[in-house]
Amino acid sequence: MSTVVVDYGAGNLRSVANALGAAGEHDARVTREPAQVAAADRLVLPGVGAFGACMAALAAIPGMVEALERAVLGRGIPFLGICVGLQLLAGEGHEFGVHAGLGWVPGKVVRLAPENPRLAVPHIGWREVEATGSGPVTSGWAYFVHSFRFEAEDAADVAAWCDYGGPVVAAIRRANILGVQFHPEKSQAEGLAFLARFLAWRP
């Protein structure tokens, strides 16, 4: 089985690859090559930065979006989006304007607006995650760094919530597509356990 981490210049790739290794995948490949993405058995799309800039960087690699679609939507391989990698699954993101996303999971990405004014934005730190069903995401604690949140059109696509001055989507799951707002590579033992479950996941 080949696990590929997509390099589009917008993620903490080494940390993610190291965490996958610690979780049991010692041969994870970091690549910018669409052919390797299209042939992967399992894909991880990390992301750090603004929605529009990340989507533009992904689309700037010739054939990359098409390779992702062939692998994830066409062959149905397990996919994991992390942080902005989750947000890019939406139809659009509202960060510095409105930008089109991949559109794999109906919804939009909007700015965090905690009901409690003492809660800072960006949201940085540990938060308890409450899973809504079975799958790789389970209830526990995870580390978050984000200023925007995924607003799903269909509640059935939400795999987990956290509370940050109101409910915030912590994970999305639709068929073989999984995305987490938290950073498993920064979430210590619980993050590694989650990645191990993802590596064993057969949707």
Question: What attributes does this structure have?
Answer:
32% strand, 4-stranded mixed beta sheet, alpha/beta, 203 residues, Rossmann fold, 13 strands, 9-stranded mixed beta sheet
Overall description:
The protein has one domain (3-200): Class I glutamine amidotransferase (GATase) domain (Rossmann fold). Helices cover 26% and strands 32% of the residues. It has six helices and 13 strands. The strands form two sheets. A nine-stranded mixed beta sheet has the order 2-1-3-4-13-12-11-8-9. A four-stranded mixed beta sheet has the order 6-5-7-10, with helices on one face. The longest helix is centred in the last third of the chain and has 13 residues, at 188-200.
How would you briefly describe this protein structure?
This protein has 203 residues and is an alpha/beta fold. It has helices spanning 13-22, 34-39, 51-59, 64-74, 84-87, 188-200; strands at 3-6, 29-31, 42-45, 79-82, 92-94, 98-100, 107-111, 123-131, 140-146, 148-152, 158-163, 167-174, 177-180.
